[in-house]
Amino acid sequence: MPLLLALLAALAQPPADPAATAAADLVEIVRLDPTIRLDIRYATSNNFLGRPVYDEPRAFLQRPAAEALVRAHRRVKTKGYGIVVFDAYRPWRVTKLFWDATPPDKKQFVADPSQGSRHNRGCAVDVTLYDLRTGRLVQMPSEYDEMTVRASPSYRGGARKARRLRDLLRRAMEAEGFTVYEHEWWHFDYKDWRRYPVLDLPFSELR
């Protein structure tokens, strides 16, 4: 029992990564480019938990990742689209909440809190596209946070236009140093994520 309690206590804290030597420099994405839109689902009940887990609908990334996202946004603008951010930096305690609430057969869609998430490091962002002409979100092969095979960036079903737009987003993000997650077309990790520590700062402490 003491060993079990010690393990539970250890999991209650973010993991330390000795290789993460870069100082955190989280910046608010819309301050760099206000034409990037936010749809922060975790500040609402419109998410897989069905309740808000953020107090504020805000989005932060480490500065190099945020600047790369702005460049990707400008790339898709030339095609008539803009980027919408669903989620970016995520406090570690929220990652643990997601892990605890997700069934075992869906764990590939959430990060293990014992390892920390790239969202926790401020180097992962969940995005989609909006149409510059109409202002509406585009249709993708799956919904955001849909835990099915349709969420895969290599899924070949669904509407051809939806796949084309998913792939347009991916090309723009990859051209700026992001890599798509194999199970989620919307999730992109920035190339330097290993340099940054796992953080558990609430949005209210980020200025």
Written description of the protein model:
- The protein has 207 residues and is of the alpha+beta class.
- It has a single domain (24-205), classed as Muramoyl-pentapeptide Carboxypeptidase, domain 2.
- Helix content is 26%, strand content 16%.
- The protein has five helices and seven strands, in the order αβαββαβαβαββ.
- The strands form two sheets. The protein has a five-stranded mixed beta sheet, covered by helices on one side. A two-stranded antiparallel sheet has the order 1-3.
- α3 packs across α5.
- Mean pLDDT is 92; it is low at 1-10.
Topology summary:
Blueprint: H1 2-11, E1 26-28, H2 29-32, E2 37-38, E3 60-62, H3 63-77, E4 81-87, H4 92-101, E5 124-131, H5 160-174, E6 178-181, E7 184-190
Parallel strand pairs: 2-4
Antiparallel strand pairs: 1-3, 4-5, 5-7, 6-7
Helix pairs in contact: 3-5
Summarize the structure.
The protein is 26% helix and 16% strand.
How many β-strand runs? 7
Task: Please name the CATH topology.
Answer: Muramoyl-pentapeptide Carboxypeptidase, domain 2
Instruction: State the distance separating the first and last CA atoms.
Output: 42 Å
Order of helices and strands: HEHEEHEHEHEE
CATH class: Alpha Beta
Q: Average pLDDT value?
A: 92
Keywords:
207 residues, alpha+beta, Muramoyl-pentapeptide Carboxypeptidase, domain 2, five-stranded mixed β-sheet, two-stranded antiparallel sheet, 5 helices, 16% strand, globular, disordered N terminus
